[in-house]
Amino acid sequence: MGNxxxxxxxxxxxxxxxxxxxxxxxxxxxxxxxxxxxNSSMISISIKHGGKSLIKVVDNGTGMDKEDALxxxxxxxxxxxxxxxxxxxxxxxxxxxxxxSSIAAVSRVALLTRNSSQQAGxxxxxxxxxxxxxxxxxxxxxxxTEISDLFFNTPARKKFLKSERAENxxxxxxxxxxxxxxxxxxxxxxxxxxxxxDYPTCPHLKERLLSTHYHEWVKYLLPLxxxxxxxxxxxxxxxxxxxxxxxxxxxxxxxxxxxxxLPLSYALQRAYQGLIxxxxxxxxxxxxxxxxTVVDVNIHPTKREVRLQNEKTICEKIVRHVREVLxxxxxxxxxxxxxxxxxxxxxxxxxxxxxxxxxxxxxKVKGRDVYPETAKGTATSHQMAKEPEEAMWFVDTxxxxxxxxxxxxxxxxxxxxxxxxxxxxxxQHAAHERIIFEEILTSLERGTAASQALLLPATIQLSFKEAxxxxxxxxxxxxxxxxxxxxxxxxxxxxxxxxxxxNVEAKDLLLDFLHxxxxxxxxxxxxxxxxxxxxxxxxKSRAIKANEKMSPEExxxxxxxxxxxxxxxxxxxxxxxxxxxxxSDLEKHFKRK
Length: 593
Ligand code: ADP
Ligand code: MG
Hints:
By secondary structure, the protein is α+β, with helices and mostly antiparallel strands. Helices cover 36% and strands 23% of the residues. It has an 8-stranded mixed β-sheet with strand order 5-4-3-6-2-1-7-8. Strands 9-10-13-11-12 form a 5-stranded mixed β-sheet. A hairpin with a 2-residue loop joins strand 9 (221-228) and strand 10. The longest helix is centred in the last third of the chain and has 19 residues, at 428-446. It is elongated, with a radius of gyration of 30 Å. 37% of the residues are buried. The structure holds adenosine-5'-diphosphate (ADP) and magnesium ion (MG). Magnesium ion (MG) binds at residues 30, 33-34, 94, 99.
């Protein structure tokens, strides 16, 4: 007799559960997705002890008849695909038919459901995947799925669950994220019998954002709306001031399915390059809608990672559009804003370590009128009424740097200048770097840079690696005004340097440049080559430093040149070039208003 035996279904399901159901939030995700697939307009989620002892999801969707209710706990039981072609055109969130069976295998389930063709509902109780009882019971159309004692029969998995607090946060995140893609559905979350989230249905994402903990973003968001070649890109991206120290504020959805996508994230990074500080990440919520046949959602059991066919084109579109809009925006931080950021009390910085402050959120829920339980698509956002549309939806795409009078230098490092709005303080070094950076970039693009010949050509002996980098960038260095000859044996002679770099030591400049590129390599993988060269050279050029006295003419020249740049707000490394204080800020602080 052979050694191979086919595993019984209850063991197969237990194994499958390990892939799909990692923790309580995975249960919440699957149950909520089922409710959405069943066309619910209201979903209520209750959890106890971080979902470890109870998760209950109640919806008002289509519900199931008795036959389906009995089938749905079995593995590969799905109403969403009928044949193999359906797998590639899938529009629903679920389709593998393994969520409920996996959950049931590792918990106790109480399912109560009714569809509109049935008089009475069906109640099914199961333990560890085995059906214990089936009864008829009165219930409204819809489904209630109650999961208790998760992982009761897989103690090893149970032991590895995180703290209640961490599980709560993870569940909250699943609900908030999902709710952003389904604004026409009302969501409620009860944690240990207290109402924590109360998101009424709303017509638009911005209102949903106001209900969630993302509400602070609203005044920084710029709309994204691109439609072409069967692809729709919608959503919002934030002005550069709102960058964060990790990628947690980048939300991507493909056909309403929340996904993680490093390529999309890199595309954003590229679009914001030079506008946000290094190791900061842009904030954006992007919805991609595309033909389901070009998305492969099968590569990951929880469908969190997907593969896209025309990823490159999509990324390019995002970069081009986002960059274009960002370049038109006013990014200068207000002095008061900078101050609060510096103190680390900023909402977003706090939320990095603790994404959901339940107390704070609950206070907010309490303060709002409770919308009627039965409201179906009629609820309005009460927060909306408080603020007028324009104030709340602040999209300032006007570039503003218009200096009226330069007022002088502070500590020989900063320039004070009056503007139409109030006054600004310019960091003279950062500003000069921005100017030189853009000059270099323009000359790289036009290939018409002026050079100054060296009286004595400099000969430079390089290492193999340095020589390789130099060879790779030779065309760009020549375009920017260098004259370099390869003498062989990793030795080069520099005969001329770019005029706009000022009087610099050619050898040092070139070595610094090569090391700058070497250092940056790998850190910013999608760096544009020209921009990278311009950035590195601007950084090594003779820009005015701090503690350098400037004459009134030099100050005027600097301001004029900064005004003429395409994007005057940050230095090439993403630090601000100037900060502003408006007259209205002043009036507020002197208690005149
Ligand atoms: P999948 O969602 O991949 O089809 P599941 O195991 O999550 O697999 O669910 C199995 C089936 O049970 C679904 O295809 C659906 O027909 C039914 N079902 C599950 N939850 C609900 C619900 N809340 N409302 C209506 N039908 C449901
Ligand atoms: Mg499902």
